[in-house]
Amino acid sequence: MFGSILLYSLGNIANGFVQTVEQYKWIRFVAGIGLAGELGAGITLVAELLPKEKGVSVHP
Fold it and tell me: What DSSP element (H or E) covers 7?
């Protein structure tokens, strides 16, 4: 989880230093990978910590 936060953060910091559209494209790609990893880890963590009574049911 910390690795994905770090990757996302470094990607966004690096976006402040881009000079071409090609650089922007690749740095946003790297930041997107970090964000995707963070969302997956965050959803899993919340699902494990949330009591079953507070959870969302898919059955009516």
Answer: helix 2-14
